[in-house]
Amino acid sequence: MVPLDYYLILSAIIFAIGVVGVLIRRNLIIVLMSIELMLNAVNLTFIAFANSLGSMDGQVIVFFVMAVAAAEAVIGLAIVISVFRHRQSLDPQEMQLLKW
Amino acid sequence: MSQFAVGHLSLILLIPLVGAVVLLLIPRQQRQVLLTVSLLFSLAAFVWSMRLFQAFDAGNGDMQFVERVTWMPAFGIAYIVGIDGISLFLVLLTTFLMPLAILASWPVREKIKEYLFFMLVLETGMLGAFVALDLFLFYIFWEVMLVPMYFLIGIWGGARRIYAALKFVVYTMAGSLLMLVAIIYLATRYAHVHQVLTFDLLQLYNLHLPVNEQTWLFLAFALSFAIKVPLFPFHTWLPDAHVEAPTAGSVILAGILLKMGTYGFLRFAIPLFPNAALAMAPVIIALAVIGILYGAAVAMMQADFKKLVAYSSVSHLGFVMLGLFALNIQGIQGGIYQMISHGLSTGALFFLVGMIYDRRHTRMIDDFGGLWQQMPVFSVFLLIVTFASIGLPGLNGFIGEFLILLGAFSVTPGWTAAAACGIILGAIYMLWMLRRLIFGPLTHPENQKLVDLSHRELLILAPIVALILIMGVYPQPFLSRMQPSVDLTLKRIVTSQAAPVATNHGTSGEMKTDGR
Amino acid sequence: MVASTSTVATLELLRWIPLIPLCACAINIFFGRALGHRTAGVLASAAVGVSLALALYVFWLLPATGIFHDLLYTWIESGSFRVNLSFQVDALTAIMLLVVTGIGFLIHIYSLGYMAHDDGKVRFFIYLNLFIFFMLLLVMGDNLLLLFVGWEGVGLCSYLLVGFWYHDAKNTIAGNKAFIVNRIGDLGFILGIFLLVTELGRQGIWTLDFAELPKHVSLLTPATITLITLLLFVGAVGKSAQIPLFVWLPDAMAGPTPVSALIHAATMVTAGVYMTARLHFLFAPAPYTLSIIAIIGAATAFFAATVAIAQNDIKKVLAYSTVSQLGYMFLAVGIGAFSAAIFHLFTHAFFKACLFLGSGSVIHALDGEQDMRKMGGLRSYLPKTYWTYVIATLAIAGVPLTAGFFSKDLILWQAFSHGSYALWLVGVVTAGLTAFYMFRQLFMVFHGSSRVEDHVKPHIHESPAVMTVPLIVLAIGSIFTGWLGAPEYLWGSLWDRWVQPVFGGAHGAEHGPVTTEILVTLVTVAIVAIGIYLAYARYARTGTRVVPAEAAAGLYRVLLNSYWIDEFYDRIAVRPFTRVSQWLAQIFDPLVIDGLVNGVAKVARGFSLIWREAQTGNVQHYLIGFLAATLALLIYYLRQL
After folding, report:
1. Residues of chain C found within 8 Å of residue B483, distances taken between Cβ atoms
2. Domain membership flag for residue A99
3. Do A92 and C616 touch (CB under 8 A)?
4. Which residues, in sequence order, are bridge partners of residue C9?
5. What is the pTM of this model?
């Protein structure tokens, strides 16, 4: 049996990779993928704990998260495509309409 | 106390709202249909409000048609509506002016659907503020009104509409936030004393706070209302908003929205904090009188017809405030009467401004002159409405002004004498305006082709002028319905002065009535 | 007081006296154009005729000390304050009724001719009927507030009628001036009402009824009564064009001449006198107020007479003469001789209306010419106008056995017997001046050689019968109305018996020794004769030299410009006020008050401008901040564990 710590460390690493990806990558699709990575890191934590505590709750939540992630991917990608159509670019640095 | 069926008052709130929703279902190309439908819904609200007027028990000063529905019991917030002799006429004024305002919107060309939608939502908002008896509910309606008005000014307004709309909204909101804080403080304070958290106005009336606390709360309420009235020196949003708003917007703004402020004083600030009101009365009276004279003097010098009318509102609302803070029966009754008659006569003035603006696309007084020759009917209406506004006996303005000054005179003769000078100034600027507008030679060639009022325009003005005459000649149906409620309000002030001041630990025992 | 002991009877007829002209007015508003000019005018005149008939009927019914009363409904009720819409007629009102409807009727008839060629004839009759309605409300109202309603209403009609020919901005300006100056007076009036109501209210009495008030006057302190009456008198000063608020009346001559006759001579301007007489129970116990009234009255009478001497406009002379005659009435009021004041009001209404209508006939004949320097020798062209004018001039000058003689003499005698010799002296001198300027006018217009401009000359014509018949009726009145109030040494006064009960104990006519009375009268007559002679010597001969304005010098110029009072007011009141308003509207309001509001916004904006630098708009930057803050919080809490 692999100790719980290992799972947690792994998921922390994946999460950190995801965070860094979101923060520094300059392509929206990669950013989206990084978000997926973060979600999956969290999923991993849930499952690890569910396994170690013998409770089903964590697994149930993972299903929820997966559903949300799927929805998010759909909408996110749709937005990405529509943004690309408008601006011919996917660089988040160029999307500064928040400051006007 | 009907809990299931929609009550009388809720129905009147719902009619315009349903109308607004129905509008959304009509395609935007159907101009006539859109206009007709919204006119019908506003008329339906008016008809229903007339039924209220009929069913209203004139001898009863208490709240009538009260409806209570629990809404957020955890916070003691409920949907409570009801009217008494004070709000009855403001409700009627709203439902009366609204169809006329929609009728005046016929010339609006762009985005008519959204325009009418906002108008109807605005009507619900205004009516709601007049009938709400739960402080929280009142606050919601109070703020809801801002939204449609913001768009009405901002989208269909004149050249500086964005500036005006923003100023209007930010200024009013700045005031009302303090009121929200005061409302919450008041409710928690009541909860401390009576162990019940409630925003029910009628319950909160029974809370007697120390004068010091009252003063702070009163000031918070007063600021918010004073901006809306507008009391000098908080008036500068008004000319901007009025001038930029479309005709119907100006009419509603002057005719109804300004009354929110004075109504707020009478319904909330004064009876909730009577001791503070008494203590602050001299200050407010002074500001009111300054406003009367100041508004008139500034109005005189305006080159823009609409701005002149706007400043005249500052002057007239000063009279209302003077009457309310005389804190006696004549003053308050006169104040309410003046609210209604100002709504009619200034509303009519704005309609008239709109009518010549539609023809000439200018509001500068100097661009006119000698209009009587070309537009006699218009001129006659302008003449009547102007004299109503000046306060000529026999027309509505006189009754209110007379009672206000009479009430105020017994309290503060000096200030009243100064205020009475306002009726001279009123005559000066109004007559000067008439001279430059409708009398004299018809000099401008553009004015020689002007056509007189259309049937639609007659239809707008005739009911108002009829009411102006009726209210001047036979005011008793109005006054007698106000009297019991005003008496009750005054009684509240008197008894609260004698009542023991509340402490944190209620001595009067548990009052577990949360109003259901 | 005695007045309150009179019998009160209800008579529902009363309401129709004012309502019929109002109905005619309403009909003409809606259907006037459809009916056509002629019918509208006839309808309006007929309505006033019916009112006159009703007034006569009521007059006939009215017992000596009786009051008729007619309650319509409660007008305003607020707390204990309550005012009814109801009418009353007592002897005083009955006389005013006859003046208003009688002279009103004649002037309506006259207007049918005078305004025949005017485009705005329907409008004219609408205003005229409305005026009659408000004037009747003024005299018939049974309480002070209703009187005030009529008071303001006639002011409105005056405004509308003075500015009737609105194409000329000058007329509208005159109308505005009339209304605004009157409003200044009304301010005093309404404050007087407030003081009266609140002071009585303090004692638990809430009433403005003329029938009730006298019973409660004793509750008021003398100082309060003085203040109340002074304030009310300010209203009278405005409406009746006394010093210092007389300035509007001469300008009001811009209106059509029938209007000048009806409103600015016979009825509206006398409302102030009527009001003081109606409230005699308040004024009588206020000696201080009375003396002020007497002084203002006498000063106005004299002052206006001096100005009238120098005027060249035919209507301006009459206007100042009206101001002067109103001064006489207030002089009478001031010495407590209310009955004499009303008597002069009554006779004055006839001869002054006659004079105005006569001048209207002249103006009509001369195609609108009003300058007396361009008249002269009109006697032969306008015989009827001339003779009626002569009679009315004799009356106003106070030539014995005319109406003006009796009424003016009564006032002067009352002043003399009251011991106010200074007032009497001013009155007598003014009588001389009156005789002088009126005969000056008569001679300048009708006698001497013609100075009429050539292009007008061929058109001079006597006015049609609709205009001359009212003139003749009024001329007859200018003689015989005075006979009602003859002094005791002739056949005695029917007037006193009729009117005096209204005023109860308030100063009955005093009767000194008859010889003194006759002597005093003779002095007056002598001075009047001198005045007439001087006018004759100066102006009656053919080829009279008429002073042109620019050649005039010294005193004459002062008088011609009526002491530059208008300019004076302009300097001390109108211009400073305008300048202050301008400063408020253009500097103070937009820059200071709005500046504060916008200043707050600007400060907030200033701070935002600094802070906005932190906002790059780049989501990833925000996320870094988000992450940093989360980590910081995490570390903070972990360290607390």
Report:
1. 77-79
2. no
3. no
4. C68
5. 0.88
